[in-house]
Write a structure and sequence with these properties.
This is Arylesterase. Pfam families: Abhydrolase_1 (PF00561). InterPro entries: AB_hydrolase (IPR050471), AB_hydrolase_1 (IPR000073), AB_hydrolase_fold (IPR029058), Epox_hydrolase-like (IPR000639). With 277 residues, the protein is α/β, with parallel strands linked by helices. It has a single domain, classed as Alpha/Beta hydrolase fold, catalytic domain (Rossmann fold, 3-Layer(aba) Sandwich), CATH 3.40.50. The protein has 11 helices and 8 strands. Strands 1-2-4-3-5-6-7-8 form an 8-stranded mixed sheet, sandwiched between helices.
Length: 277
């Protein structure tokens, strides 16, 4: 299995697992919490069929990547992404981040610039700034995130069960756009993630990405469902068009957070149309 080394802990390599398939212009897909790169399977299939090179990877602490005790902040996540891009010597890249992965897109460009980047995609993103503050009244009360951390500390498996119900809006789409088998598979992927990473990633969601997205000049696509219960559109992606000049937004009607699965056809159509421009 291919890995790239991104650091060390106690003289042991910290490695990211990645997959690199197809030919053509490269698209790097960055997964959301608490899943892994395989969560992009419906987008990967569409992109490969359309003639793109598709790279997915598992964030540290998740999937088949190493599970170190530290590094669950966006400066480190962006450095990990940079190590992967340099390892593969990628240029002309479209960076596409889902949910938490949108933070890597923003922080990577904010920190490393756009020399390797051709386009950017934010799907159901945590950017630009989720927490409510005096200068960010559209955000979510910090008590919500404190409550999530309390639930994870108490019983992360029980937390995952409820999380995925809202991730997929299962009460609406169970039996039509999502099966119990998908919910079970997502639960199993989450359950195999690092317990420490599962908790430590939550404070990272509160990062202020406004200075990062202000540096984005490449063509940018934002896609989000208008029924997102995990990161409500009005607190997240719905604000990005005003912050990223020339960006375009596609709102998926009735879409939950997990549009990459429940509304894959709609997301794929938006993504491919954007890439072909």
């Amino acid at each position: 299995m291919p890995h790239v080394t991104v650091g060390q802990e106690n003289n042991q390599d910290i490695q990211l697992y990645f997959e690199d398939h197809g030919q053509g212009e490269p698209v790097v897909l960055i997964h959301g919490y608490p899943l892994n790169g395989h969560s992009w399977e419906r987008q990967e299939a569409a992109l490969l069929d359309a003639g793109y090179r598709v790279i997915t990877y598992d964030r540290r602490g998740f999937g088949a990547s190493s599970q170190p005790s530290a590094g669950y902040d966006y400066d480190t996540f962006a450095a990990d992404l940079d190590a992967l891009l340099r390892h593969l010597d990628l240029t002309g890249v479209t960076l596409a981040g889902f949910s938490m992965g949108g933070g890597e897109v923003a922080r990577y460009i904010g920190k490393y610039g756009e020399s390797r980047i051709k386009k950017a995609v934010f799907a159901s993103p945590v950017a630009p700034y989720l927490v409510k503050t005096s200068d960010n009244p559209e955000g979510v009360d910090k008590s919500v995130f404190d409550g999530i951390m309390d639930q994870i500390r108490k019983d992360r498996f029980a937390f995952f069960k409820g999380f995925f119900e809202n991730f997929y809006n299962a009460d609406v789409f169970r039996g039509s756009r999502v099966s119990d088998d998908v919910l079970h598979q997502s639960f199993m992927v989450a359950a195999s993630a690092s317990a420490r990473a599962t908790l430590a990633c939550v404070p990272a969601w509160l990062e202020d990405f406004r200075p990062d997205v202000a540096k984005i000049t490449v063509p940018t696509l934002i896609v989000q469902g208008d029924q997102d219960r995990i990161v409500p559109m009005e607190a997240s992606g719905g604000r990005l068009p005003k912050l990223i000049a020339g960006s375009e937004m596609v709102v998926i009607k009735d879409g939950p957070h997990a549009i990459s699965w429940t509304h894959a056809d709609e997301l794929n159509a938006a993504l491919l149309a954007f890439l072909r421009k």
